[in-house]
Amino acid sequence: MTYLFEPAAITSLPIVGSEKLFPVRRIFCVGRNYAEHTREMGGNPETETPVFFLKPAEALVAEGGDIPYPSATEDFHHEVELVVALKSGGTNISATESLQHVFGFAVGVDLTRRDLQKICKDNRHPWDVAKAFEHSAPCGKITPSEKQSTLPDSAAISLTVNLDIKQKARLGDMIWSVENIIAHLSRLFELRSGDIIMTGTPAGVGPLHRGETVTATVEGLEPLVFRVS
Ligand code: MN
User: Fold this and answer.
1) CA of 150 to the centre of ligand 1 (A)
2) What are the structural domain ranges in the chain?
3) Per-residue pLDDT tens for 162-195?
4) How remote is the CA of residue 174 from the centroid of ligand 1, in Å?
5) Which of 57, 93, 197, 217 lies at a C-alpha separation of 20 to 30 Å from 141?
């Protein structure tokens, strides 16, 4: 049997210190995982828990480069996020066992059509048009994690546009830790090797314009740099 047409290529991410590529299966995303960001979006972190949504693997842009300004928006926003890459998975994973499924960590940016997201929220529509468009998930190289350890709570996460710092927080500011995110997600989906998770963004999200250069960092990981074209 042959395919009717050439199947899409496997999306993948490079790995620090390895010639092998990490093949990406799905991109899970967490919304409202930092209290200050929930507030800046008009929500209440006391009463609203984090939410999940997905982007297609195809939305990934490995190691940044040039990101085209998307169609149909006049308010294209950056959201810097810690990305968790899974080497295995399952269902009903406990928080204490979660880190054995983690291959490593990377820096990603959840690019968002904020104006369309507001319309989605106002009309109780799904978020796909705001979140799941092409090139909406630039992501840096994966740094393999040491023996079932996570990154320290003190690690800084930040994003600059040109030379201006727009977002800066600590990973310890996350409402759900990496362990808790994996535990929650695995009750809703059967997690698999190749799944990656964008773990939510801190406060300071804002618009990007053509020609701007974005540098996204998490202390201890390879920075991600891209330019909006
Ligand atoms: Mn996000």
Assistant:
1) 20
2) 12-228
3) 999 999 999 999 999 999 999 999 999 999 999 9
4) 12
5) 93
Distance in Å, CA 62 to ligand 1 centroid: 17
Give me ligand 1 centre to Cα 41, in Å. 12
Classify domain 12-228 at the CATH topology level: Fumarylacetoacetate hydrolase; domain 2 (3.90.850)
Burial (CB count within 10 angstroms: exposed 0-12, middle 13-18, buried 19+), residue 4: exposed
User: Which pLDDT belongs to residue 68?
Assistant: 98
Cα 1 to ligand 1 centroid, rounded to whole Å: 41
**Ion ligand 1: residues, CB < 5 A:** 79, 110, 201
Ligand 1 centroid to Cα of residue 22, in Å, is: 22
pLDDT of 41-94, one tens digit each? 999 999 988 999 999 999 999 999 999 999 999 999 999 999 999 999 999 999
What is the 149 CA–ligand 1 centroid distance (Å)? 23
Q: Which percentage of the chain shows pLDDT scores above 90?
A: 97
pLDDT at 147 over 80: no
